[in-house]
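Board notes (copied after class):
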Amino acid sequence: MKKLTLFLSLMMLAFTMTTTAKDARLEKTKNYTIEAKVEGKSIGTINVSLWPELAPKTVANFDKLVKEGAYDGTAFHRVIPGFMIQGGDPNSKDKPKNTWGMGDPSQAKVPAEFSDIHHDRGILSMARSQDINSASSQFFICHGDAGFLDNQYTVFGKVTSGLDVVDKIVNMPRDKNDNPNTKVEMFITVDKGTSK
């Protein structure tokens, strides 16, 4: 009985240590604000922290696109309640809606940077085609648990506030292709509070 009690105590200690240990890869952040607009009116902001030590190439690409204004005016073109909202396709700025999500083949591709970080509610991850190294500008924010994507898509950040805005976007009326009936545009800025 004493051996069993000792074993259980050690197991609980190990579990506590693994669940409370900080992941050093997530301590350094780059922070951004995503403003969502419908018909020119703000419906709120989503604050996100990206992890350059977890996915350095992905974060560098995202940062470059933000600073170039590449995301501004693009849409959250695919919304699935309980799963995710996806956006960032340059086609969604001014091309026909049936091209949204197809991407621009001339965009630079970012190699996969898979990790053990779980696709949980609020996680940012890169969209891609069948080619695992085909991510470019499109990303998605998990609305619910999407663990089936773990180790197959590049996680690069997390929502720190504004999940209520993600909820608004994901619940907008949409068509049979999961495109919102009314365009939801994004405008992304770098936060001044970004850690170095």
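Comment from the instructor: The CA atoms of residues 48 and 160 lie 5 Å apart. Strands lie at 30-38, 41-50, 74-80, 84-87, 123-126, 139-142, 155-161, 184-190.
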